[in-house]
Specification:
With 181 residues, the protein is of the alpha/beta class. Helices cover 33% and strands 31% of the residues. Helix 1 packs across helix 3 and helix 3 crosses helix 4. Bound molecules: adenosine monophosphate.
């Protein structure tokens, strides 16, 4: 459990930028968690405590902010980290998954050997924020297609009014550190 006073320190460390990257979006800037040693430390301690006994084999982080929290957590838990990247960034053979955006489609990819042949690898998916859930749903599908089991999807923040976490929870358990926003 995250103590209310510690949760407040993390919440207060998030900077909100109105109208970025386009009008009407309130961008949740987590760079101000990362440069705040107390907030970053409390967040990572909480994640380590939550996941240390879940027998995870890998953490998969979503491009790009999921890499930061995911890699730090993987190191804390003594397990491997796997990047799930936007199309065209991974150099080796990939598996890919398309997902719908408001206008058009996007695509995420994973290396075909990401889980090093571990049978039914237990994988935690992580990103900073879930909005419509399109990215995370595609990423969870990639874990599945690669032979892994997405044990849980973890986000620091959940813009629940957009319905993404509800949709994703039909496929994998969803955990949001700071609850619904
Ligand atoms: P979605 O696929 O709609 O759930 O979008 C999730 C991805 O977009 C995540 O990788 C987030 O980092 C990013 N994102 C979406 N909305 C915001 C927001 N308001 N503030 C910061 N990042 C966002």
């Amino acid at each position: 459990m995250l103590k209310p006073e510690n949760k407040k320190i993390i919440v207060d460390a998030i900077r909100e930028i109105p109208d970025f990257p386009k009008p009407g979006i309130v961008f949740k800037d987590i760079s101000t968690i990362l440069n705040n040693a107390e907030a970053f430390g409390l967040l990572m301690d909480h994640l380590r405590d939550r996941y240390k006994d879940m027998n995870l084999d890998f953490i998969a982080g979503i491009d790009a902010r999921g890499f930061i929290f995911g890699a730090a957590l993987a190191r804390d838990l003594g397990i491997g980290f796997v990047p799930i990247r936007k199309k065209g960034k991974l150099p080796y053979t990939t598996i890919s998954e398309k997902y719908a955006l408001e206008y058009g489609v996007d695509e995420v990819e994973i290396h075909i050997d990401a889980f090093r042949g571990v049978k039914d690898a237990r994988v935690l998916l992580i990103d900073d924020l879930i909005a419509t859930g399109g990215t995370a749903f595609a990423a969870a599908n990639l874990i599945d297609k690669s032979g892994g089991i997405c044990v849980e999807s973890c986000f620091i923040m959940d813009l629940a009014f957009l319905g993404g976490s509800k949709k994703l929870s039909t496929f994998t358990p969803v955990y949001s550190v700071l609850g619904e926003d």
